[in-house]
């Protein structure tokens, strides 16, 4: 054994094996979750692995070089085709969420519901940290160089962003994208399903608010009721009351507009679940009459017209909030009539509960339920 360890080829092989073990240990879930920087640093040992293997088995370098060239070509293509430079402003929300509004130097490609961008903010992390975030803003031909994302404080980078940013900051950022499937289209949804269920868990609300914005934008262009959809159920489950402030104001405005008697919109059923203890003495504040929340595609004239037509109604319709109660998927799936489209975005356990419920009800019910799931992780 000792004589074999004296052989240089064996030494290089052991060095390569050791470097690969360091990379593997740095890839463990707990390392990625608790200390992302260690995950990045340990992956630098891959260069030591390549160098050691080049000396241990010289002919293997042709395969390493071929793979490296393909990887670099992919990076160059993404940078020139899907990368953008812009400036970002921040709006810190209660419950650990930061709204990031980005003005790009060049227009962003058409993006769809559920798609995401990779965002780099050098002043917060480093020039090498890229993080994926769901796009919450809708496509706007008149202002297609603006992008909005909501960042929930979960890891080191997102917590640092939430704790250190202020409204006055205007910092340079880099982003590339959009990435993800583009099959979810508002027009197809409204023409295909009698009932639409939008179920959201925690930060999955970023997917749901984009979907609801797109549905409203599409419906606002229709002069009379010509869509197949008659009911839209929106249910959002959060752990803390303060997290409702991310989108409650906007949801309650939509709740009013969709259920107004003079609008040709489907009926909106809005329900919010708070599973944990109350972390605030005050519930999320509601908006005053005729106030238009930022980010909603509603003109003041259009909203004033809705209010003036029914003076007994305010500009919002408050949501039904259930405290210390978990969401039961069957409660909403049983309300579906005809063809139903169920759009779910939340943690893996949340999504699994809907998958199981849909599987059970699809056997018992005559109506057809089509499930769309969006997963995310931290």
TrEMBL record:
N-terminal signal peptide: none
UniProt-recorded Gene Ontology molecular function terms: ferric-chelate reductase activity
Alphabetized UniProt keyword annotations: Electron transport, Membrane, Oxidoreductase, Transmembrane, Transmembrane helix, Transport
Domain annotation FAD-binding FR-type: ranges: 77-185
Database matches in SUPFAM superfamilies: Ferredoxin reductase-like, C-terminal NADP-linked domain, Riboflavin synthase domain-like
GO BP: reductive iron assimilation
Chain ranges passing through the membrane: 12-31, 38-57, 63-81
Taxonomic superkingdom: Eukaryota
Name this polypeptide is given: FAD-binding FR-type domain-containing protein
UniProt-listed PANTHER family: FERRIC REDUCTASE TRANSMEMBRANE COMPONENT 1-RELATED, NADPH OXIDASE
A cellular-component GO term for this protein: plasma membrane
């Amino acid at each position: 054994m000792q004589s074999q360890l004296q052989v240089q080829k064996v030494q290089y092989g052991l060095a390569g094996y050791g470097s690969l073990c360091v990379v593997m240990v740095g890839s463990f879930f707990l390392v990625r979750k608790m200390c992302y920087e260690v995950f990045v640093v340990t992956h630098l040992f891959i260069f030591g692995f390549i160098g050691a293997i080049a000396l241990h088995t010289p002919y293997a370098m042709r395969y390493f070089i071929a793979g490296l060239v393909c990887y670099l070509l992919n990076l160059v293509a993404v940078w020139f085709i899907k990368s953008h430079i812009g400036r970002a402003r921040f709006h810190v929300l209660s419950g650990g969420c930061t709204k990031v509004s980005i003005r790009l130097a060049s227009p962003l490609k058409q993006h769809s519901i559920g798609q995401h961008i990779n965002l780099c903010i050098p002043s917060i992390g480093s020039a090498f940290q890229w993080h994926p975030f769901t796009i919450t803003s809708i496509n706007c031909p008149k202002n297609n160089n603006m992008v909005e994302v909501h960042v929930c404080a979960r890891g080191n980078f997102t917590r640092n962003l939430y704790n250190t940013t202020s409204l006055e900051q205007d910092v340079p950022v880099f982003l590339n994208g959009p990435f993800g499937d583009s099959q979810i289209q508002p027009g197809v949804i409204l023409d295909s399903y009698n009932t639409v269920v939008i179920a959201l868990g925690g930060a999955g609300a970023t997917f749901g608010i984009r979907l609801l914005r797109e549905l409203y934008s599409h419906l606002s262009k229709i002069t009379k009721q010509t869509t197949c959809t008659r009911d839209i159920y929106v249910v959002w489950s959060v752990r803390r009351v303060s997290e409702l402030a991310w989108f409650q104001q906007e949801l309650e405005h939509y709740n009013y507009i969709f259920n107004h008697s003079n609008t040709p919109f489907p009926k909106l059923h809005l329900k919010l679940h708070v599973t944990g203890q109350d972390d605030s003495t005050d519930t999320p504040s509601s908006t005053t009459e005729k106030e238009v929340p930022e980010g909603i595609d509603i003109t003041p004239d259009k909203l004033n017209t809705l209010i003036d037509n029914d003076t007994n109604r305010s500009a919002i319709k408050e949501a039904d909030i259930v405290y210390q109660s978990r969401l039961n998927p069957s409660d909403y799936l049983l309300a579906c009539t005809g063809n139903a489209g169920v759009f779910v975005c939340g943690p893996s356990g949340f999504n699994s509960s809907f998958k199981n419920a849909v599987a059970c009800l699809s056997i018992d019910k005559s109506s057809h339920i089509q499930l769309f799931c969006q997963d995310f992780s931290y």
